[in-house]
Amino acid sequence: MFSLSRSRLVFAGVAAVAASVAFAQPALAGHTRLGTRSLSKPTRVATTIVAPPAVTTATPVRIAASATNVSDGSGRSFKPDAPYALGGQLVSTLLPVTGTASPLLYQRSRLGGTGYAVPVSTPGTYFVDMFVSETRGVQPGQRVWNVTAEGSTAATSVDAARDAGANRAWHVMFSAPVTDGTLNLSLVGVTGNPLVGAVEVDYQSADTAATTVLAQDFTGTAGTSPSATRWTATNAGNGFGNRELESYTDRPSNVSLDGAGHLAITARQETYTGADGITRNYTSGRIDTHGKFEFQYGTAVARMQVPGGQGMWPAFWALGSNIDTAGWPVCGEIDVLENIGAEPTTAHATLHGAGLAGVPWLAGALTNASAPLSGDYHDYGMVWGPNAISVSLDGRTYMAVSASDIAPINNWNFNHPFYLLLNLAVGGTWPGSPDATTQFPATMSVDFVHVTT
């Protein structure tokens, strides 16, 4: 929601896919298998089985489908996955992989593996990030697989060709509690064989069960404010770096419960003099949890019905709680949902961070619903781990970004607590101003906001 060029680096969106190739064939054009099989008589050598390194509270396990160490764009080392992987064969491609600064992590893959066994040093919750890309030329629907973690479903219907397109970086992210010393991951092919390039497992917390830390269902009497122990309403109208046209207020006419289990954030066309003494032609609402609720890692989802209309700009997002000392964009920003009235079916997700000397960077994606988002309630969610973030619409991921994907000159500004924001902006550099077709009042209706960690 802060001002920055909207020429987005799009990581999602189905691209044209190369012609179908049966992955059972031994030699695909542009592809190789890693390693060769010796025909000479094997020599028996006494070996000692050494357990592979475990994930600790301070050190993740990063493994890649390679016989040698592989480094990402920032120099983080990924070890060979052989001590952890179950089954499968190593394959590689010379074709470029887009959407990442670390293509080697996707160009080398394990085809047909059945899972991974990753030791952990202590019971707790561990965050898993699987690096995947459809580099073998199959069409959407021809390589689909599921993941279980510790016997529970972690991801279903993984289809990189459908969700990312051919030769494009993609991720499968989830958290899993581990109590027995080993994180057991199983890959189950639905159609075709699973294909995974690299895996990162990070310690997330000491918890061994998911806990809902924020459950805002907005029940209450119509016209009352949302919980003051969780939310603060903004009283300002300075454009917020985006040349927005509204004055935000805490009046019930702009921010209040509707009495039917929803929070109504309403934009109105009216002459109003804001707290800054400037008279504007629109009012609206913006609330946040700064100083009242923050979290680090987990999932967050808001079920909302956004308004349509030229110049409308509803958003559900998060900012680093250190914004007062670090400033933006060093604090980091996660935009879970932004929609502008000129794009009624399009949901945007974006990460904003800072690189060397505080220079801003962004990574984002968009997806298009089958009907205008204003027509119904939708779930806008994110999954956030120590080194990766994904965003979904109605449970389907459309943005997935790892710290290994961003350019080496950029910092991963998402390793500290964040707070949440909900707002409905009017006008600004991105959506443009309302016009004669825009209907007021316009309401963003929020059914719930839930955070689990």
CATH class of the largest domain: Mainly Beta
Quickly count the helices.
3
In this structure, how is the largest beta sheet organized?
10 strands, mixed
Tell me what the CATH architecture of the largest domain is.
Sandwich
Instruction: Give the quaternary arrangement of the chains.
Output: single chain
Indicate the radius of gyration in whole angstroms: 24 Å
The parts where pLDDT drops under 50 for at least 5 residues are: 3-41
Mean pLDDT: 91
Strand runs, count: 32
- Dominant shape: elongated
Q: What structural class should be given to the helix and strand makeup? A: mainly beta
- Binned, the helix content reads under 10%
- Total tally of structural domains: 2
**Straight-line N-to-C gap:** 25 Å
Per the CATH scheme, the topology name of the largest domain is Jelly Rolls
Question: How large a portion of the residues is in β-strands, by DSSP E?
Answer: 35-45%
Q: SSE layout and pairings?
A:
Blueprint: E1 31-33, E2 61-64, E3 70-71, E4 77-80, E5 85-86, E6 89-93, H1 104-107, E7 108-111, E8 115-119, E9 124-132, E10 144-149, E11 152-158, H2 160-163, E12 170-178, E13 182-191, E14 195-196, E15 198-205, E16 212-216, E17 232-233, E18 246-248, E19 255-257, E20 263-273, E21 279-284, E22 286-288, E23 298-305, E24 312-320, H3 323-326, E25 333-338, E26 346-354, E27 360-368, E28 378-385, E29 388-393, E30 396-402, E31 418-426, E32 442-452
Parallel strand pairs: 2-4, 18-21
Antiparallel strand pairs: 1-6, 2-15, 3-4, 5-8, 6-7, 7-14, 8-13, 9-12, 9-15, 10-11, 10-13, 16-32, 17-22, 19-20, 20-21, 20-32, 22-31, 23-28, 23-32, 24-25, 24-31, 25-26, 26-27, 28-29, 29-30
